Amino acid sequence: MENGIDSFVSLSHWPYAGSFGFNTDIFATNPINLSVVLVVLIYFGKGVLNDLLDNRKQRILSTIRNSEELRKGAIEQLERARAHLRKVEIEADEYRMNGYSEIERQKENLINATNERLKRLENNKNETLHFEQQKAIHQVRQRVFQQALQGALGILNSCLNSELHFRTIRANIGILRTMQEITD
After folding, report:
1. Residue 28 neighbours by CB under 8 Å, 6+ apart
2. What is the domain extent for residue 40?
3. How far is it, in rounded angstroms, from Cα 42 to Cα 38?
């Protein structure tokens, strides 16, 4: 190794320009070739490399800015969505409470209407029963009266002679005339 360093440093070991050939000493040629390539790459490639790095840096920065803007937009949308959700939940609670109270109110109205209808039906039933009772009583009275009248007429016809019959008719006509004069 020391031999390779010595040959690199000492110029006496290098062949003169008049002769051309391959230097097979690998330790002497590689560092020189590498240093030349590196110097050329650094000198000529510095601008290209700087441009590439600057472009990459700008793309990364713009991506970061876009990501930040998207994040801010997403946060704003999330906040709006949360506010809308709160509003909808409040409205849902109000609808639920109003719905329950409306259901209770309708239930009470239905119960009251049913009770009123039952009362009317009960009254109609009682009126119908009372009417039918009065009708039955009236029919019984008419039959009793007709039977009594027929019985009385039968008794009168068998007991009365024509003179008594005429007197009874005249007395009844007189009673009817006095009743008519009283009413007029």
Report:
1. 4, 7, 8, 13
2. 33-135
3. 6
Does any domain span residue 63? Answer: yes
User: Quick check: is 174 in a domain?
Assistant: no
What are the two backbone dihedrals, phi and then psi, of residue 13, each rounded to the nearest 5 degrees?
-80, -15
- Domain presence at residue 180: no
Residue 28 lies in a domain: no
The CA distance from 52 to 181, in Å, is 139
Contact 7, 32 (CB under 8 A): no
CA terminus-to-terminus distance, the chain: 167
**pLDDT tens per residue, the chain (184 residues)?**
444 444 444 444 555 545 666 666 666 667 777 888 888 878 887 888 788 889 999 999 999 999 999 999 999 999 999 999 999 999 888 888 877 888 888 889 989 999 999 999 999 999 999 999 999 999 998 888 888 888 887 876 777 677 777 888 899 999 988 988 888 7
